TrEMBL record:
Family: Belongs to the peptidase M16 family.
Gene3D superfamilies from the UniProt entry: Metalloenzyme, LuxS/M16 peptidase-like
InterPro entries given in the database record: Metalloenz_LuxS/M16 (IPR011249), MPP/UQCRC_Complex (IPR050361), Pept_M16_N (IPR011765), Peptidase_M16_C (IPR007863)
Every Peptidase M16 N-terminal domain range: 42-85
Name of protein: Putative peptidase
Coiled-coil region list: none
Organism whose genome encodes this protein: Candidatus Scalindua rubra
Domain Peptidase M16 C-terminal residues, every copy: 249-424
GO MF annotation list: metal ion binding
Length: 504
């Protein structure tokens, strides 16, 4: 698809003079192929530089977990870099009995601890000492971060992974002549992953949770907002998992989860760049074709019931106040999602957005005000985040946001403002597709939640949104009964304020 690279040179001119004409031409020529074991391959040629952007997407995220193993998907994001029988270890034959001994000791320690007050503490101590000795011997065999090191030595960039509610992604950009190395390493990781250093990595994730959630006022607020917003759907629990689940997660239980969800028939490989699709198919067939498919993972069937009244929560923390408001909205694929994309831009994109001009610039009530309503696989929320500017309160800012939402319901957005927003949305989206890496990320993210073809109609349907659509959607969803409000309260300052009032 060499012509696509030429289009990028013309984008600024086309966007300026004829927005809608370009949107209708945006058709990614993605080639598809599925192996007999279920692995789906999505390929897009882009021959401007000899680089290939690769993504492996597993259609599993926190939404697929259950109480007791919340955080398993995120933990596996870590474990996938621990190596296989040939990567990350000097001698697997020497390591294997140590892994078996580790499992045996962990099981005995857990069994003894279940006895509570009757547990033999001396026995537990002896078992724990034996476990430390096993770990010491294993550590002598481990080659730390070997897979990362091999990739970097072969010119890889953008090495990373991420876990979300709906999917888990593994990223890599490589010179085109290193594709076979990638296929060999990644197929071995899918076939022969070894859960080494499982318990130490579990501790790493626990520390990550402390840092990002429990010791982060914003992280704590969002976690509590989601928990209050969803009463049934698994979007209500955090991607990183609840601390008690992480702490008690067992290797054998998580291994079953891996086998079920990290199977070839639940995976998508995205390849974008200087490639020949026929050669890519042969390469992936050679290395991934013998991996056994598994029974299809169960679908998430729980549906969040309609909210029938406003919910409010206050989270106490020694930090400045923060406001967050969540409104339920439909999943990706619903026609109203395109309208929410436009509403998000009107309210929150840049210094000319309504929230910025009203709350930050004019009224000077807030230092930060953002809205987000991007798509998800299942029905989710349109969320507002705002940090009040002293001496304004979270409740004052909350009312100011409601005023902006009422304007959306009652006053049509002008043609000038709407066209400006549509131009911004289209320009931003096209810019995200300029690089092979950007294309691979967009294709993989939309494939995970709905199907990559969503990209081909996204801009066209977004710029078709009318002022009437905006008023209708705002009136339907931005209602008191459909919202959950979470406010971070500074407990220390609150006490001081109360004492001052009493003295007065």
């Amino acid at each position: 698809m060499k012509i696509f690279g030429m289009r990028f040179l013309l984008i600024p001119i086309i966007l300026f003079f004829c927005v809608t004409s370009y949107a209708q031409k945006l058709k990614l020529d993605v080639k598809e192929h599925t192996l007999n074991n279920g692995i789906k391959i999505l390929m897009l040629e882009k021959h401007d530089v000899p680089i290939v952007s690769l993504r492996i997407v597993y259609k599993v995220g926190s939404v697929n977990e259950h109480p007791g193993i919340t955080g398993a998907s995120h933990l596996f994001e870590h474990m996938m870099f621990k190596g296989t029988k040939i990567f990350g270890i000097r001698d697997y034959d020497s390591e294997k009995p140590l892994l078996e001994k580790e499992d045996e000791l962990i099981s005995k320690i857990a069994t003894e601890k279940t006895k509570g007050d009757n547990a033999d503490q001396k026995k537990i101590k002896q078992l724990e000492e034996g476990l430390k000795e096993v770990w010491k011997k294993q550590k002598e065999l481990i080659v730390k971060d070997e897979m990362w090191s091999i990739y970097l030595k072969n010119g890889a960039t953008g090495l990373n992974a991420s876990t979300g509610s709906d999917a888990t992604y593994y990223y890599c950009n490589l010179p085109a002549n290193r594709l076979e190395l990638w296929a060999f390493m990644e197929s071995d990781r899918m076939k022969n992953l070894i859960l080494r250093e499982f318990y130490s990595e579990r501790d790493v994730v626990m520390e990550e949770r402390r840092l990002r959630t429990e010791n982060s006022p914003f992280g704590l607020l969002i976690e509590q907002l989601n928990a209050a917003t969803y009463t049934a759907h698994p979007y209500g629990w955090p991607v990183i998992g609840w601390m008690s689940d992480i702490r008690n997660m067992k290797k054998e239980e998580v291994a079953k989860y891996f086998k079920q969800y990290y199977s070839p028939n639940n995976a998508v490989i995205v390849v974008v760049g200087d490639i020949n699709p026929d050669e890519i198919i042969k390469l992936i067939e050679k290395y991934f074709g013998d991996i056994q498919r598994q029974p299809s993972p169960p679908e998430v069937t729980t549906v969040e019931p309609e909210q029938r009244g406003e919910r409010r929560i206050y989270v106490e923390y020694d930090a400045n106040p923060v406001l967050s408001i969540a409104y339920h909205k439909p999943a990706v694929g619903h026609p109203d999602q395109y309208v929410f994309d436009v509403i998000e831009a009107i309210l929150s994109h840049g210094r000319t957005s309504r929230l910025y001009k009203s709350l930050i610039e004019d009224k000077r009530m807030a230092v930060m005000a953002r809205a987000y309503g991007g798509p998800s696989k299942y029905a989710d929320t349109f969320v507002f985040f705002c940090t009040p500017r002293h001496p304004h309160t979270a409740e004052e800012v909350e009312e100011a946001i409601y005023e902006e939402l009422e304007k959306l319901k009652t006053t049509p957005v002008t043609d000038h403002e709407l066209q400006k927003i549509k131009n911004q949305i289209e320009a931003g989206f096209i810019r995200s597709l300029e690089s092979a890496s950007g294309l691979a990320s967009k294709i993989s993210s939309y494939e995970a939640i709905y199907g990559w073809r969503y990209i081909n109609t996204l801009v066209e349907k977004t710029i078709a949104v009318t002022p009437e659509d905006i008023m209708r959607v705002a009136d339907k969803y931005f209602t008191k009964t459909n919202r959950t409000v979470a406010i971070l309260v500074n407990k220390k300052k609150g006490k001081e304020s109360t004492n001052e009032n009493k003295k007065g």
